[in-house]
Amino acid sequence: MNDSMDHIREAVAYIQSEVTLQPEIGIILGTGLGNLAHEIDVSVALSYEDIPNFPVSTVESHAGKLIFGYLSEKPVVAMQGRFHYYEGYNMQTVTFPVRVMKLLGIELLVLSNAAGGVNPDMENGDLMIIEDHINLQPGNPLTGPNLDELGPRFPDMSEAYDAELIHRAKAIAEKHRIRHMTGVYAALPGPNLETKAEYRYIHRIGGDAVGMSTVPEVLVANHMGLRCFAISIITDIGYPSEKVVKVTVEDVIKVANEAEPKLTTIVRELLQTL
Length: 274
Fold this sequence. Notes:
The protein has a single domain, classed as Nucleoside phosphorylase domain (Rossmann fold), CATH 3.40.50.1580. The chain is an alpha/beta fold. Helix 4 links the parallel strand 7 and strand 8. Strands 5-8-7-6-9 form a 5-stranded mixed barrel, surrounded by 4 helices. It is built from 6 helices and 9 strands, in the order H-E-E-E-E-H-E-E-H-E-H-E-H-E-H.
């Protein structure tokens, strides 16, 4: 057994000593999307810094708490603030919390993020339900010794995002007349936003949106046999080039905050169908 499993078990043991609730669903909240946590009927909130071996989020707008409670009457654990490769963490550290959530008992991982749109039909504030991804990040969390007790050496990724949940989420969006599409999320390392040429490249290779997160967590979740559902809020437009404007993180957070109620509606009602 390697140190990784020891570290995961140590974190799990601490959490279980503080929390009696056993979560069935894990939720990872992205940039500007922490307000979904307010929908959770919270039992316990743990600071990342108190959990053994847990990384600590360095990004503004990421609260850094692991929240346990109920959403749509389902027991959940939510990460209010995630980790990114660009913060200087390796991919195993970025995805460590997903390993921990699996050992806590989750069977489904729900992820959200803020992303740049490279599909010409997109507008700021649109929702994109992720149906597939392209990994353009320089590392993979499954590199190194395989954790055999968690999953196979060569996990299949042909349905990385659960088709049934995508179908249900689209129906919920249509019922509420929420502007949405399904699409392909391309993950880049960041932290800079992309150049116009990079946006064009991502569009040409089949990406609809681009961001700096989500894919590492989905790789690890699939490795462990978890179902995944992910959704992006389009917070800026990268294609066609004439629609590109200079963007700050404050702009991204503002658009994400404004669109978040739509995302919350979809996630809340999606969990009700489980």
